[in-house]
Specification:
This protein has helices at 19-35, 60-76, 108-120, 141-153, and strands at residues 10-14, 45-49, 52-57, 84-86, 90-92, 95-102, 125-130, 133-138, 161-166. By secondary structure, the chain is of the alpha+beta class. The strands form 2 sheets. Strands 2, 3, 4, 5 and 6 form a 5-stranded antiparallel beta sheet that branches. A 4-stranded antiparallel beta sheet has the order 7-8-1-9, covered by helices on one side.
């Protein structure tokens, strides 16, 4: 068949977090921690730098309360908690700390899993890994929508978004 030069319909599968919203959620969480009577005089606080949210408290019970507050504030701002990777608890200087890593992009293992899933599905789409995102092309828009439905239902341990839908 003659190629018309018109690009095939496509979309990108990404896993992105709006870091400004993370900053806003952390600010709100700190305000709540600062105002709560049960945290008076404690070292409980939350810090956000780049893709890390650092939690700190006097003990593990308090740290879990701080983490609950942060989770609530993130969820209220539309951030999927599945994009957080919890570091291990660290203890020292009479404090407990934990770092939550905000995952940006799709790592290679998950990208390969997405490619395999779509290839095994027998949908008429082409899939390619492009850096930290996965591009899906197909001749028919319906195939692309089926691909999105399949991915939404798949047990992928990272929240995915579907952007740059081109017809």
């Amino acid at each position: 068949p003659l190629h018309t030069g018109k690009p095939m319909p496509s979309f990108d599968t990404v896993s992105e977090v709006d870091l400004q919203e993370v900053t806003n959620a952390v600010d709100q969480a700190n305000r709540e921690v600062g105002n709560r009577y049960d945290f008076k005089g404690s070292c409980a606080r939350v810090e956000h730098t780049d893709n890390q949210v650092k939690l700190q408290a006097d003990n593990e019970f308090q740290l879990n309360q701080v983490k609950d507050i942060v989770h609530k504030k993130l969820a209220q701002r539309g951030i999927d908690l599945g994009s957080l990777d919890k570091g291990k608890l660290e203890t020292g200087n009479n404090q407990v700390r934990q770092v939550l890593i905000v995952q940006q992009g799709i790592n290679q293992d998950i990208a390969r899993k997405i490619v395999k899933l779509l290839k095994d599905s027998k949908l008429k789409v082409q899939v390619s890994i492009q850096g930290d995102k996965v591009r899906v092309n197909g001749k028919k828009r319906d195939d692309l929508q089926s691909a999105i439905s399949l991915l939404k239902a798949a047990p992928i341990e990272l929240p995915l978004q579907y952007i740059n839908f081109r017809d």
